[in-house]
Write a structure and sequence with these properties.
The structure is a single chain. By secondary structure, this protein is α/β, with parallel strands linked by helices. The chain has helices spanning 2-20, 44-56, 66-70, 75-83, 99-102, 105-123, 139-147, 173-178, 203-216, 226-231, 235-246, 255-263, and strands at residues 25-28, 30-39, 60-64, 88-90, 129-130, 152-153, 181-182, 187-188, 190-192, 199-200, 219-224, 250-253, 267-269, 274-277. The chain has one domain (24-277): Glycoside hydrolase/deacetylase (TIM Barrel, Alpha-Beta Barrel). The protein is 45% helix and 19% strand. Strand 6, helix 8 (173-178) and strand 7 form a beta-alpha-beta unit. It is globular. The two termini are 35 Å apart. Bound molecules: zinc ion. Residues 37-38, 91, 95, 133 line the site of zinc ion.
Length: 278
């Protein structure tokens, strides 16, 4: 009995020591990442979207279509503006249908080469995050993207740890060395693309997607398309969603920060909560 009591007391002291050392831990029911797709230029709509996220103090990652930027008339100016965005990802090469699902091996290699050249020239370095167009990719595309060193792939596949189905221990550095984190889409704002204007998903369905993620302790990847959102004056829809999410005990982060948390061994999932070291 005495040995147990001593262990308990030692545990309490250890807990206090971590606090004294300036580190603390916070627990959350879910983690939320916003992904904004189909960025080809930095226009008024994109700036307005950025200011909504800034005002809300919530990160957002913009996924860029390289060939559309290359075709733009103000190429170098656009590149400069893209480099100034808070967080960027690569969204395929030309977004020509499901190009990372239906292209042959050598075509995918060629696309990755073009992405690398574009990234060096325009972005002064390649982003670590890859978002295949239409969330679709083949297994050969996955192999080639792994080999080319992307740290995150955000498509339709969700791994068990994203959905809160398995506990995530600390010490995941090794995992990161072997493969990218796969963080699949959880919810999308647009429902139908082929109407004019595009049809947005019913707000209550988007809320339910999020509620389900909170219940399942999922890392919730919320996808939006700023052009459709801003052209159709739906920014209040986004603000309403962020406010709705803030009522829950969730941690807003970016793909980049999440990778860092894994790399620094500062995140774990204990079966009930995501625990983040600060
Ligand atoms: Zn897209």
């Amino acid at each position: 009995m005495r040995a147990i009591s001593i262990l308990v007391i030692a545990g309490i002291f250890l807990g206090s020591l971590t606090l004294i050392g300036g580190e603390s831990e916070e627990s959350y029911d879910s983690i939320v990442i916003f992904r904004n797709d189909d960025v080809t230029t930095v226009d008024r709509g994109l700036r307005d979207l950025e200011s909504i996220f800034e005002k809300e103090n919530v990160p957002v990652t913009h996924s860029i279509i390289p060939s559309k930027v290359e075709d733009s008339q103000n190429y170098s100016e656009t590149c400069g503006e893209l480099r100034n965005l808070s967080s960027i990802a690569i969204h395929g090469y030309n977004h020509d249908g499901q190009e990372f699902k239906y292209s042959k091996w050598d075509e995918i290699e060629e696309k990755i080469l073009r992405i690398d050249n574009f990234s060096e020239e325009c972005l002064h370095g390649r982003p670590d995050i890859f978002v295949p167009p239409h969330n679709a990719m083949s297994s050969s595309a996955r192999i080639l993207l792994n080999e080319s060193g992307f740290e995150v792939i955000s498509a339709d596949r969700k791994m068990a740890w994203q959905t809160g189905s398995v506990t995530v221990r600390e010490n995941r550095t090794e995992f990161l060395e072997e493969r990218p984190l796969e963080l699949g889409q959880s919810s999308m704002l647009v429902d139908h693309w082929y109407t004019e204007p595009v049809q947005f998903e019913n707000f209550s369905n988007i809320q339910s997607d999020f509620d389900q993620s909170v219940e399942d302790n999922e890392i919730h990847v919320q996808v939006l398309h700023y052009k459709a959102l801003m052209e159709n004056n739906k920014s209040e829809k986004l603000e309403g969603l962020i406010e709705y999410m803030k009522e829950e005990d969730v941690y807003f982060t970016s793909f980049g920060e999440l990778v860092e948390l894994f790399a620094e061994d500062s995140i774990r999932f204990d079966g009930d909560n995501w625990v983040i070291k600060k």
